[in-house]
């Protein structure tokens, strides 16, 4: 069986190679106008509230997806520390769901009567398909890395010096833009790259397609938050 190999001739890892190769779509996901508007202090608060209500629904569906990644790590990973990284991520979702509830009450967003919008439903359906036992650990962990990294890069942008993020949105940006979350994303990236290095080329190809799908679902999610469907 052919091996996928790790990265390009310059010694870049597979995920770093993809990020460069697919730079235009990667930037559409990580520098979306919704995020740039937060950073510039011009975000429409109705859009922010829409994002908040929809993201709570998404995170609830992210829990079983991540549980499926954990299960695959336990069964398919040759590295015991993978399980600890994924378990840490899963455990932090409990705190994240509580954060959504307190943030929603602050903004008068009614989480339990918010219906999922089309882009969210489609993204959640995609997560459900990735949770299938037929999807390999390599593909699932690549999706996990991409999903977390889009939020990390996006919200970190709103915390950079020179940004004019409104004070009442700083807490939201810190949740995903903080340095600790950045290190957590790097740990997931190292897992994905290690797996991709040893993977057969057809699995590497599938993982790259899933990476691109995640970027496109993320763009649709931001568009939905801006009021476009
Ligand atoms: C849509 C979306 N993508 C990613 C994340 C980060 N877990 C999130 N909360 N929501």
TrEMBL record:
The pathway that the record names for this protein is: Cofactor biosynthesis; thiamine diphosphate biosynthesis
Q: Entry's SUPFAM superfamilies?
A: Heme oxygenase-like
In its UniProt entry, the species of origin is given as Iris pallida
Q: Which family does it belong to?
A: Belongs to the thiaminase-2 family.
* One record GO biological process: thiamine biosynthetic process
Question: What CDD domains does the record point to?
Answer: TenA_E_At3g16990-like
Which InterPro entries does the UniProt entry name for this protein? Haem_Oase-like_multi-hlx, Thiaminase-2/PQQC, Thiamine_Salvage_TenA
GO CC aspect terms: cytosol
Thiaminase-2/PQQC domain location: 22-227
Tell me the leader sequence span.
none
Q: Which Pfam families match?
A: TENA_THI-4
Looking at the keywords, is Acyltransferase present?
no
Top-level class of the enzyme under EC nomenclature: hydrolase
As recorded in UniProt, its EC number(s) are: 3.5.99.2
Name of the molecule in the record = aminopyrimidine aminohydrolase
Q: Which GO terms describe its molecular function?
A: thiaminase activity
Show the catalytic activity.
4-amino-5-aminomethyl-2-methylpyrimidine + H2O = 4-amino-5-hydroxymethyl-2-methylpyrimidine + NH4(+)
Q: Which UniProt keywords apply?
A: Disulfide bond, Hydrolase, Thiamine biosynthesis
